[in-house]
Amino acid sequence: MTKKGILLLSLVACMLTLPMAMNAQCKQFAKNTCKAGLDPYQHDGNYHAALLIEGEEAELYKTFYSDRNYRIGVCGASNLSPIEFKVVDTRNGKVLYDNSLKDFDWKWDFKLESSQQLKIMVKVPVPNENVIEPEEGCVAIMFGSLDD
Amino acid sequence: MNRNLILTGRVSLLLFVFLGFILTGCNRGTKSEGVGSGDFEATGSLDVETQEQLNTAKRIFYSLPSPLETAMLIKNAGAEYNEGLMNPTENTSKYITSKSKALNLGIYSTDLSYASLFDQAQATLNYIEAAKEMADGLNILDAINEETIQRLEDHINNRDVIIDIISETLMNSSSFLKENGLEATASVILVGGWLEGLYIATNLVKENELEGKLVERIVDQKLSLDIMVNLLEESPDDEDAMAILEDVKVLKTIFDKITIEQGEVTAVEDPETNVTTLKSESSIEITQKVFNELKSKVIEIRTSYIS
Question: Nearest Cα to B99, choosing from B286, B238, B223, B247?
Answer without folding.
Answer: B238
